[in-house]
Amino acid sequence: MQVGISLLTLVPRISGGSETYARELVRALGRVGAHSYRTFLPTIASDVDGLPSEVVTEYRASTSTTGRVAAMAAGLVHGRKLRGRLSALDVVHFPLTVMIPRVTDLPAVTTVLDLQHEFLPEFFSRAELAYRRGVYGRSIRESRLVITISEHAARAVIERYELPEDRVRAIHLGLDHETFTPGTATREPFLVYPARAWPHKNHERLFTAFGRLRQRHPELKLVLTAYEGPTPPGVTTVGHVSRDELVRLYRSAAGLVFPSLYEGFGQPPLEAMACGCPVASSNAASLPEVCGDAARLFDPTSVDEIVVAVEEILSEPDVWAARGMARASAFSWELTAHAHDAAYAAVADGNAD
Q: Are 213 and 67 in the same domain?
């Protein structure tokens, strides 16, 4: 069976968790996949490796917001050349939510990574809401099967788009256990939070909670990655870090604090757990599903609960570290790849209608 994977809308260093998903899925399919595959890459992300690929020069990829919107619009309106590249396929997968090129004569699978705009519309402009609702809705309705990365997201797709349950399949993301492993370094008195300064990442409440924690733990610091903006005393920003540097932070931090208001999945808590780092996490959206009882969960809208949760993981680090490592061991990119293969086969056989 020939499976195509369209990554035309991938934007390196901007796509966040969706980029991790796309790259790791392709690598895992290259290791354990049961079918024949071809990835279709934009010129700005031609380095995706693991499977045979084509760089699609007809798609005018861009790193700017305006350029991305223009490229997607052109891909939807003038997609004949793009669709021609897919003609020999049995199934085509769009892992990044947007179906480009648009296909109607080929079994299509689309992954919906999150529906944040449905739960937190106040964080989006009118134009962004219209785009998400229009493009996401079309991609969902025209796909033979929709993959989500959590059961929480699957329920939302079924309810919001009135899809039959058998057209939606939840497949958890994986974890690279060769990279995310415990270290031998002594843990230092700092918390780590890897997140961009997006509204749903809830930095302001975290800063308030951290101020209270510092009153009782004056030695405690907070390290942020990928964050740009003003910070209170005791908070350090280290910008975008390499994967190796992120692992170093997980291995040496006293704990990960993750106060996000919404996640389609939530990779950082699992990554930290795999490195033996105690985790205090929001109980919003998919995070309880992902973390189970291996993280000290809290209401991310309550500063008091954030403070209490962090103090608990600081007071019993060995207990939370052990729980976390056990939890993280249940996730792998190989399992994710096998589940995707099963989805492709179901769609090709017509069993996902």
A: no
